[in-house]
């Protein structure tokens, strides 16, 4: 890892920092603003790649300028520029330069870190993994959510990479790809009866009730934060209707204040990273 950031100084975990920046950029667009974040220095060029690849958005669309700000490794920085110029691409299972930056970055992103509190949103998504008990998950979610749109679909390997860009280790990635593409998943598009913070607690509570803690075969995928909720709705809902914008635009500007506090940055101005 190279570089520093205000968030790192403030003690925000690596994944927490990157998902907060993603959420900030998503909610800027939801609020009708042109995405762009001042005063954020990525810890690694791969932070910018993660945001672009996870969201399916070129760097320029998000106001991210990897050529100017990614810093770090002389091999990885231009690689990220190439991968995020148009439709974002995955670097492959072993993209490592001699410094093995991608693997070190991925390990940092997946390291244990403090759980963040996220602002409330109304839209949501749950994906029941192959072999999971979809009926039981529906029952457990029905108290808090209206299930707008159940879809049964088989994921592609590209879908799996978009869901978990920070996965690393060739054997783990191969096992995960095989499992998640082996049978249909059930995608549930959700609207909260009362707006609720996106967060990992509900997902883990459901997994505990359903009784499987295997790191792969754990029944359920649910995004942990507003930005990834938008990404997953875009990737998996199979709908051109932007539910996030429909249900969550009204409070987007308020959520931007929450992210600024997390990142320790000032009110956004015209400058971009
Ligand atoms: Zn490198």
Task: Outline the structure in words.
The chain is an alpha+beta fold and 273 residues long. The protein has two domains: 6-115 and 253-263, no CATH class; 120-250, Nucleoside diphosphate kinase-like domain (Alpha-Beta Plaits), CATH 3.30.70. It is 44% helix and 12% strand. The protein is built from 13 helices and four strands. The chain has helices at residues 6-10, 14-30, 45-55, 66-69, 76-83, 101-109, 134-141, 157-163, 170-180, 200-210, 226-236, 243-248, 252-263; strands spanning 120-128, 145-153, 185-197, 220-221. It has a four-stranded antiparallel sheet with strand order 2-3-1-4, sandwiched between helices. Helix 2 packs across helix 3, helix 2 packs across helix 11 (226-236) and helix 2 packs antiparallel against helix 13. The longest helix is centred in the N-terminal third of the chain and has 17 residues, at 14-30. It is globular, with a radius of gyration of 18 Å. The two termini are 18 Å apart. Mean pLDDT is 86; it is low at 269-273. Zinc ion (ZN) is lined by residues 73, 75-76, 97, 99, 101.
Specify Rg, calculated over alpha carbons. 18 Å
Secondary structure: helix percent = 40-55%
* CATH topology (fold) name of the largest domain: Alpha-Beta Plaits
Order of helices and strands: HHHHHHEHEHHEHEHHH
Question: How would you summarize this macromolecular structure in one to three sentences?
Answer:
The protein has 273 residues and is of the alpha+beta class. It is built from 13 helices and 4 strands.
């Amino acid at each position: 890892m190279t570089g520093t950031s205000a968030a790192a100084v403030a003690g925000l975990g690596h994944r927490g920092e990157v998902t907060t920046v993603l959420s900030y950029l998503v909610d800027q667009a939801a609020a009708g603003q042109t995405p762009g974040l001042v005063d954020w220095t990525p810890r690694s060029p791969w932070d910018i790649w993660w945001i672009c690849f996870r969201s399916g958005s070129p760097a320029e669309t998000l106001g991210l300028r990897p050529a100017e700000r990614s810093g770090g490794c002389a091999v990885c920085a231009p690689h990220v520029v190439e991968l995020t110029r148009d439709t974002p691409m995955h670097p492959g299972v072993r993209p490592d330069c001699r410094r093995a930056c991608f693997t070190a970055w991925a390990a940092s992103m997946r390291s244990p870190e403090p759980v963040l509190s996220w602002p409330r949103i109304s839209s949501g998504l749950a994906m029941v993994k192959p072999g999971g008990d979809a009926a039981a998950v529906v029952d457990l979610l029905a108290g808090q959510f209206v299930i707008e749109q159940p879809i049964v679909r088989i994921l592609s390997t590209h879908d799996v990479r978009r869901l978990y860009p920070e996965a690393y280790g060739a054997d783990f990635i191969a096992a995960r790809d095989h499992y998640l593409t082996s049978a249909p998943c059930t995608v549930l598009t959700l609207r909260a009866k009362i707006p609720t913070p996106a967060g990992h607690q509900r997902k883990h509570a459901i997994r505990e009730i359903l009784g499987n803690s295997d790191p792969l075969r754990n029944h359920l995928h649910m995004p942990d934060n507003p930005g990834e909720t938008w990404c997953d709705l875009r990737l998996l809902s199979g709908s051109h209707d932007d539910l996030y914008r429909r249900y969550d635009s009204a409070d987007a500007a308020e959520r931007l204040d929450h992210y600024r506090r997390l990142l320790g940055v000032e009110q956004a101005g015209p400058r971009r990273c």
